[in-house]
Amino acid sequence: MARAEHDPFAHIREATLKHRAKHGCGAYPYGNGPLLTALAAAHGAKRILELGCALGYTALSFSLGAPKAKIDTIERDPEHARLARENFASAGVEKSITVHEGDFAKVLPTLSAGYDIAFFDGNTPVPALHRRLHELLVTGGLLITANLNHGGTADAVYKDLFDGKTWRSALVNEEGETAISVKL
Question: Domains, the chain, ranges and CATH?
Fold first, then answer.
């Protein structure tokens, strides 16, 4: 996890944790926003797709690394989407981040291909969603998949990411929770 002094959006991450504790909802902020910032900057991302917005911590992290990028983020909880939009406005990036409200499986078919980075942090990864992310990414695009240690369908996604046929993947933490994959 990133230290707060190196994370300009640590306060959003903390607000998300407090929100979850108060409401008992599924808003779990990703543990390392600065990693996402660095990946977006290193990749020169112009279009970024995020599945699982919560209160906007990771979308803000991506926007810092790729300030000219257009970011689409999907969130099914209307309250989380509202709070994320407020956080984007406070950070002055509301024109570059679009929040799509709804279920991933319903929103993804409405999006056009050409993303440089896709980030899945929406509970347990599902093979069908990851196949759609593969279609939406450009060749050489990055897929960052969190929650690979959840078991069940996450195990199938893990197997697909490391089969060497459609992705080149590496785990980025000891817990086996997050993989970074390059679309072949």
Answer: 4-183 (3.40.50.150)
